[in-house]
Amino acid sequence: MANINKPSIPKGTRDFSPAEMVKRNYIFDTIKTVFRKYGYLPLETPAMENLSTLLGKYGEEGDKLLFRILNSGNFLQEVSPDDLKSPDANRLSLKLCEKGLRYDLTVPFARYVVQHQHEIAFPFKRYQIQPVWRADRPQKGRYREFYQCDADVIGSNSLLNEAELIQLIDEIFTRLSVNVKIKINNRKILAGLADYVGEAARMADITIAIDKLDKIGKEKVFGELQEKGFSQSAIDKIKPLFELKGDTDTRLNTLSNFFKGSETGLKGIEETRMLLHLVSKIFPKNQVEYDFALARGLNYYTGTIIEVQALDVEIGSICGGGRYDDLTGIFGLPGISGVGISFGADRIYDVMNQLNLFPQETSSSSVLLFANFGAKEAQYCLGLLAKLRKADICAELYPDSIKIGKQIAYASERGIPYVALLGENEMHARQITIKQLTTGEQKTIADTDLIDFLKQVSVE
Fold this sequence. Notes:
The protein is α+β, with helices and mostly antiparallel strands. Helix content is 41%, strand content 18%. It is built from 19 helices and 16 strands. The protein has helices spanning 18-37, 51-54, 59-64, 81-85, 89-96, 106-115, 160-175, 187-196, 203-210, 213-216, 218-227, 232-238, 248-258, 263-280, 345-354, 375-390, 404-414, 424-429, 450-459, and strands at residues 41-42, 48-50, 68-70, 97-101, 124-133, 145-154, 180-186, 287-290, 304-310, 319-324, 338-344, 368-370, 395-397, 418-421, 431-436, 442-446. The strands form three sheets. An eight-stranded mixed β-sheet has the order 1-5-6-11-10-9-7-8. A five-stranded mixed β-sheet has the order 13-12-14-15-16. A three-stranded antiparallel β-sheet has the order 2-4-3. The longest helix is centred in the first third of the chain and has 20 residues, at 18-37.
């Protein structure tokens, strides 16, 4: 007999069972509810974008992580033998690929705003929940295909937008019962750092290195800067800034003294002070703190940057974002500032699953299963089932007339808490026997009381 390989999926991707999807949808529905509450409107963009839209927006390392799509038809038509021999894989891929899978939702959003600028009322608030793809090395909490849940407002410079997004973050994680720390910084402060060490033109190299601080530690960050050609004197000036002590005001005051010669750095400190003041007015339930080491590696951030960490599980950031002052300028519409955040639904799922935070009712979509005693009884149940569904109660009828024990086992496996036993005697008496699977208890009620009974147990 031939050995047939078992089918598989690409590394860094996952299948989600119905039980898992019910939990994921709980996360999505919670996030959507809060997005809409704050006035954000839904938007979707294509899974693939032109590479010209994506390249150069995420930095050199981000460009390497783009999934590229081979041109259709004869994709080798424009490729010469010399191109094929070239060691420059990036140059070759540009001849083979005109499109790529989106890396995030922010750049496609900026492209959309420019393309549809005459149809939009600014400031424009949108939310978007779709998958993104990154050719990263798969590991715990890091996937090649994952969902992002974004909220952005574009067309306003006000720090009130950042404060609102922090409030939105706080409410969503409070609703999900996930304890988090919301960290903020400002890219202008990091620009001030680059000015301070005399490397203003190399801010990107500094932020990319600092962004790895939590993963590799301070000494390796300093080592990476040294490998990139930063002088020892520049590194020695950076080191004390990671040792700042005291409360936020004290640390910001110290930075102000260091950055006296940097107008940009001082502006970043001023913005951070104001944002923290605004946040104090919304009384967040979760901790909000300033973190000088927060960098976020994406090149398009220009002001406030935000990152959220789960407190009870060791995992990477589960939400992040920031202000981008001129992302639309890359597409021909300069001077439009925006700010946004992105929730990592897959990591949030992993955190909630590990901590057992999903409500019990998310284990199944149905609260009741009608057992099937035969054709006549099943037809009778259909009328009752229609009434339940009209009352927005999730219920179903087992489709086949098999042993009742197997039907009850099916309900138990599905996590359906109640089974309705309705045979010929019950039909004549217009009664229903309800079996609660967790306790094994049975109760007989009038069929007219079924809706009230299920609503009552749902509340309990």
